[in-house]
Structure formats: structure tokens, C-alpha cells
Specification:
Layout lengths: L8 E4 L9 H12 L8 H7 L4 H11 L6 H15 L9 H10 L4 E5 L3 H7 L4 H4 L4 E4 L14 H8 L10 E5 L2 H9 L3 E4 L15 E2 L18
Parallel strand pairs: 1-2, 1-4, 2-3, 4-5, 5-6
Pfam families: Hydrolase
Protein name: pseudouridine 5'-phosphatase
Cofactor: Mg(2+)
Length: 228
């Protein structure tokens, strides 16, 4: 007997899970804060991963005590993103798992904190893969997503946009960030975490299961077709 609930639908985060964007985001943010003699350390990064754009900008300005408004910081960092966060590579296991689930007719969706513009920029060279998803929820610009992660809104919205509107307990979420894991748990969903190696053990404890690669997930334990 599996200790996990069987599910019928799967929802993916994107940054740091499907796309290897986190090092690029780190570089872009450091480019901005270094102008004020500040360092974007891993501890600061850990707490802002997965946050809505506005909340993330407010957090950085406050935490690093920047001598600018969050709006000024946000405008500056968005320009950096356009330069730095382009054409990210897929993370190991992502293509394999996504293609497998799509081939097995498992309904899949993306729930990203990114804005629609940012999503289009980052996925430009992976359009065929992202076409396999039933739908994409871009929390940064989607009016239905009232609150960003760690609030559950984005995952609940993603669930309601599947044609058969599954209940949250029928959805499995894949996440890399502690804020995202908390959002999924708060939504009443099970969550498989694929954390960066720097994420401390304590920050992984809320996940239903932790794996080191998407395609290493024991899908059959959640009632899904296993990868052969």
C-alpha cells in the first residue's frame, strides 16, 4: 500500500523546477543590489523564492535596506531580467517527466509566479514542450491569483482551470521552493519537492516527498503511470 493519496492531475511550478532560471535570477538581482554595496546571499534568496513579483521586490528592498523604493528596485531588476534571464535550459528530468505524463494523457498544468511577458521570454526556445500543458497560470499578471505563494491561490486557480475541475486532493504539485511547497500544502495538495542542493533539510520538511530529479519521482505511489 502506498502511503500517498492517488491523484489524477499534476501541476508544475516553472522556475528552478522545469527551467534552470535561478542562477540567472541571482545574477540579475546581484547586478542591481551591488550598485548599493549589497550582496544577494543564499539566505535572502531562499526566503524570496516563489514569491509574487511585488512581494519579492518589497522583500529585497527591506531585507537589504536598499536606499530606493520597491518600485524603483522593481523597475531596475525587470530591465536586468530582460538582459540576463533569457533562453534558460531545461533542468534534468523535466522533459522526460512532462512528455511521459502527456503521453499517458494525465492532465498537466503550469502554475508560475512569473508574469505572462516573463513566461513568454523564458519559454521561447521550449515552445513545443510547453504546448503539452493543458493550461498555464501566470500568477504575476493573472487577476484570479489574488495572493502570491506561500498563499494557496495559484494552485487552486490552476486546479479549477482543468475542464473537469478536480478537487485539490486529486492534484499533485511539483515544486522546488519552500514558499511553493507551503502554497501547495495550504491548497490541500500533495507536493513533490525537487530542491536546490543548498536548501536546508529543515526547509524541506513540509513536502510530501523529496526527490533529486523530476523523473525520479515514484509516480506509481500516487496512482500515476510509472516512467518505464
Amino acid at each position: 500500500m502506498s502511503k500517498f493519496r492517488h491523484v489524477s492531475h499534476v501541476i508544475f511550478d516553472m522556475d528552478g523546477l522545469i527551467l534552470d532560471t535561478e542562477p540567472l535570477y541571482t545574477k540579475a538581482i546581484q547586478n542591481v543590489v551591488s550598485k548599493y554595496g549589497k550582496n544577494f546571499t543564499w539566505d535572502v534568496k531562499l526566503n524570496m523564492m516563489g514569491l509574487h513579483r511585488i512581494e519579492g521586490s518589497k522583500y529585497i528592498v527591506d531585507k537589504l535596506d536598499l536606499p530606493i523604493t520597491w518600485e524603483e528596485y522593481d523597475a531596475d531588476v525587470q530591465e536586468q531580467y530582460k538582459v540576463v534571464v533569457t533562453n534558460p535550459e531545461l533542468l534534468p528530468g523535466a522533459r522526460n517527466l512532462i512528455q511521459h505524463l502527456a503521453k499517458q494523457n494525465v492532465p498537466i498544468a503550469v502554475a508560475t509566479s512569473s508574469s505572462l511577458d516573463s513566461f513568454e521570454l523564458k519559454t521561447a526556445k521550449h515552445k513545443e514542450l510547453f504546448k503539452l500543458f493543458d493550461h498555464i497560470v501566470c500568477g504575476g499578471t493573472d487577476p484570479a491569483v489574488k495572493n502570491g505563494k506561500p498563499a494557496p491561490d495559484i494552485f487552486l486557480v490552476a486546479a479549477t482551470r482543468f475542464p473537469d475541475k478536480p478537487s485539490p486532493d486529486k492534484c499533485l504539485v511539483f515544486e522546488d521552493a519552500p514558499n511553493g511547497v507551503q502554497a501547495a500544502v495550504s491548497a490541500g495538495m500533495q507536493v513533490v519537492m525537487v530542491p536546490d542542493e543548498n536548501v536546508p533539510v529543515e526547509a524541506r520538511k513540509n513536502a510530501t516527498l523529496v526527490v533529486n530529479s523530476l523523473d525520479k519521482t515514484p509516480l506509481e505511489q500516487f496512482g500515476l503511470p510509472p516512467i518505464k
